[in-house]
Each structure stands twice: as C-alpha cells, then as structure tokens.
TrEMBL record, chains A, B:
UniProt keyword Cell division present: no
Domain HTH asnC-type, residue spans: 4-65
Keyword Transmembrane assigned: no
Pfam families (alphabetical): AsnC_trans_reg, HTH_24
One GO MF term attached to the UniProt entry: sequence-specific DNA binding
SMART domains recorded: HTH_ASNC
Recorded coiled-coil stretches: none
A GO BP entry: regulation of DNA-templated transcription
Gene3D superfamilies: 3.30.70.920, Winged helix-like DNA-binding domain superfamily/Winged helix DNA-binding domain
Keywords attached to this entry: DNA-binding, Transcription, Transcription regulation
GO cellular component, one term: cytosol
Name of the protein described by the UniProt record: Transcriptional regulator, AsnC family
Length: 155, 155
DNA sequence: TAAATATTGGACTATAATGCTAATTATTAA
DNA sequence: TTAATAATTAGCATTATAGTCCAATATTTA
C-alpha cells in the first residue's frame, strides 16, 4: 500500500468525480502545474490504485430499468462446483456483480433486467445453472445512493 | 428512450471498457472517422445515456479491503422517517450504495471499511441513525464479478 | 424517382499531452 | 543551524488530440 499525500488524495477525488478531466483541468483543481500532475496520475495508475476509467451509463435509458439482488445457495460446496457455477455466472451478461458472501446465502448477485418478464427469463437461466439449490430475490425499489466515491484518507 | 444503432452500441461498449479512449482511438474502434464519432458521443452524453466518467479505484489500495452488505429495517415507515434516515445515509462516506428494497429488509447498503474494527465503528454509527430498528450484515468473502459492463441492445 | 433530411469525412484552428531541463523545495547529515 | 543531497516542481517546446465548419455522401420519405 503506497503512501498517498494530500495532493494524491485530491487527484483521486477529482478523478472519481470526473474521469475525463483533462490533465490541465485536473492540475488546476489540485493546485499543481500540468507536468507533475500528469506524473502523479501515471504513478497512481502504475501502482494499481487507479485501475481504469469507465463511462457511466443510465441503465433505464438502455432498457434495463429493473435491478434485483439475487441470493443463491449451492447444493455442493466443493471447489469444482463453485468453479463451474462461477464460470457460468461470468457468461450471464445481465449479472453485473457477483460476490461470495457470508450468511445464509452462498452468492449474492446484482442483476439488471428490463422488467419482470426479463427477470423471469433470467431466473430460469439461474435455476438451470449447475449446483444451484436455492434462489431468493430482492427487488430494488429505489436507489438512494449509488456508486458514491470511495472515502480516501491520506497516509 | 432514444434509438441506438449498431455504432452507438459499439461506442457505449468501448467507453464502458475504457472511458479515457481518445476520440481518435474510439473512432477507429467503431469504424468511423473522428468528427461523426465525437458528435455521437456528445449526443449520448446530452441524452443522458452516458451520465459521466469515473476513475475506478482499488479499494484495497486505499485501506478499504472489507466490503459488507448491511440490511436495515426502520421502526417507522412514514415519509419523514425515511427522509431523515436517507439524509443521514448520504452523509456516511463509507456507505457506497444504498437501495430501498423489497423483502424482509427496508434498505440494503453496501459498505466499504478497512477491517472488522472499521466495521464496528460504522455499525455503531448505523445503530445511532434515526428510526433504525434492525440491522443484519453479510460480509463479502470474495468478488466473483464486479462492475461488469451493462448488456446493451441496439434499438 | 426525386427532393429533403440526416450523417459523414476532411481541412483547419485551438487546446492538451508529454518529454526535457532548470529551478525550487524538502530531506538528511554534519 | 547549515550545507549537501535527493526529490519534486514549473516552464517551455514539440507532438498529438479535440473540436468546428463545410462540402460530399448516404438515407429517408413522398
């Protein structure tokens, strides 16, 4: 874990808000001239602190207005079963996130679909996945806070 | 919902993968010359399909190696209680996502903390929030698939 | 088919990225 | 505290990119 000074923190916060800031704009915001600013950004990228830049899309505009959390249990908990299941999950494009979690479920998925019909299709796909024993769904009614910037502390 | 042709879909997919592609690079990838490519990107931004660009950071590098889903129930379900609770959630920087969900919980939060100690601190803050009755936590053991690109269909 | 509309490609200007060097700042050791 | 060293920064020059304008092409519609 690389030490971040106050300027690095400002850079990271600015790029979390707007990943397409030009280096000149970024340098202004963090009170630095362009070249050292660029040097710091490159170092943050090389250090793996900045892992990439993504355009954020509005799922509703893309016909993906329904978001669902799907909790899933497997019938077998050996490595082979997990690997097979996870490989299948990676192929399902409507599954945006998938975590192995503690608690009553094994996996928690976050899924984007158009509507209940789309959800039904996906549910059937999930039920057919290898080693799936149990599925429970929670629908997102409203998003209160989404993809908030990470809290960064200088170190 | 604006109609997207095949070129728009390619643009959106390319920018989901890399939001800092130069317009020239993007134009090459979608087999278009620079100026119409730029025009399309601007239209996608103005239409609200592209909502922004963000740098992706590695939480582990920032001392936020622990991710937890927190399910939360309120004691009262009137508007005032919800509003007060949601306002408080917006102020908690370790809460990255917060959704109103169906099912046994009212709200589902996604939380980033350094470790169990950090989690304990946050848990106490959540318990002190107005109208909170019940809290249940699920720890993320491993991320199988994270922030996968949205599946986009031409229309 | 022909007219109208939308989209594209290319030239040009303004702006930004990037590498280099000198100067400044911070750090270490005496 | 001062001097020496190392790290970081600012400014400048060069190259690349963004963004605008207009003519040409493709598409749509009657």
């Amino acid at each position: 874990m690389i030490a971040l000074d106050a300027i690095d923190v400002r850079i990271l916060n600015a790029l979390q808000k707007n990943g397409r800031l030009t280096n000149v704009e970024l340098a202004e915001q963090v009170s630095l001239s362009a070249s050292p600013c660029l040097r710091r950004v490159r170092l943050l990228e090389e250090a793996g602190i900045i892992t990439g830049y993504r355009a954020q899309l509005d799922p509703a505009c893309l016909g993906l207005g329904m978001s669902v959390f799907v909790d899933l249990r497997l019938s077998h908990h050996n490595d082979a079963a997990s690997d097979e299941f996870e490989a299948a999950i990676l192929r399902l494009n409507n599954v945006i996130n998938c975590y192995l979690v503690s608690g009553s479920a094994d996996y928690r998925l976050e899924v984007l679909v158009k509507d209940l019909q789309g959800y039904e299709v996906l549910l059937r796909q999930l039920q057919c996945l290898p080693h799936v024993k149990d599925i429970q769904s929670n629908f997102v009614i409203r998003s209160v806070k989404a993809q908030a910037p990470m809290p960064i502390a200088a170190s």
